[in-house]
Each structure stands twice: as structure tokens, then as C-alpha cells.
Amino acid sequence: xxxxxxxxxxxxxxxxxxxxxxxxxxxxxxxxxxxxxxxxxxxxxxxxxxxxxxxxxxxxxxxxxxxxxxxxxxxxxxxxxxxxxxxxxxxxxxxxxxxxxxxxxxxxxxxxxxxxxxxxxxxxxxxxxxxxxxxxxxxxxxxxxxxxxxxxxxxxxxx
Length: 159
Known about the structure:
- Helix content is 42%, strand content 14%.
- It is α+β, with helices and mostly antiparallel strands.
- It has a single domain, classed as Muramoyl-pentapeptide Carboxypeptidase, domain 2 (2-Layer Sandwich).
- Strands 1, 2, 3, 4 and 5 form a five-stranded antiparallel β-sheet that branches.
- Strand 2 (102-109) and strand 3 (112-113) form a beta hairpin.
- The longest helix has 16 residues, at 14-29.
């Protein structure tokens, strides 16, 4: 499978290749759950302006996740981003949210958004599985250890 994908996505180097190999190993460990959830109208509206490939991943992830989730934010304005940087919510003005290449999603536990990182794992796993199935390379803030809600298209492939 990797050989059929990598040539189409050249140039892949270093970190990107390691991320792709990790995703392949992950797919063997992920157990599919029956579809139980769908995106709310509010979540769908927050995907406006987001890259179509990322929207496909989120739509597939909600079909296979064992935990419901909501889209918190997709596309941001420069003003919103500057506000988040000033508040310390974001670390950069080079956010992938500015170009529609990132979304923030959060699990819904007991009818409420959870900010507990342990609750993000099954949602992140569903997003990873969806990206792998759709052959869309991504990075996940959860893997960085500090930004559980964040998911973005791989910068080296999606400029």
C-alpha cells in the first residue's frame, strides 16, 4: 500500500515518511466500531472554507469513531488568529487554520465538550484511521503532546 501512495506524494522525506509508516502500523491496531454518530449542522457549518480533503477525513472519522465529537473551529481570519496568539491559545501566526488546512475537534462526553486529553485518544484514532483509508497525509496535535483538538493536512504535501 505504501508503495502505491508515496510516489504520488513525492517528495516525502524524513519526518513525513516516518509519520506515514506510523499511520500504516496504526491501521493494523485500530478496531472499527459500527457507525453511531453524525456531524451536527453546527459542526458542518464550521467546516466552511476548510480544504475538501480535510472535510472528507472528518466526515469519515465521525462514521467510525467510538466517541461522538464536534468541530470547534476550521478556517480562521488573521484577526482571530492574532487574538488567539495574544491570549496564549495559539503559538503562531502561521497557523494552518488560516488557509483552511486545519480543524479543531473535541470529544463529547456526557453531552458536553471534554477538554481532558485522555478523552481525545479514540477521536484521534478515528481521524488517523479515516486519513489512512482516504490516503490523505495528516498531522495531529495530540501527537505533539499539547494540542489534542488540532488536526491538519501535512504541510509538505498540502501547501
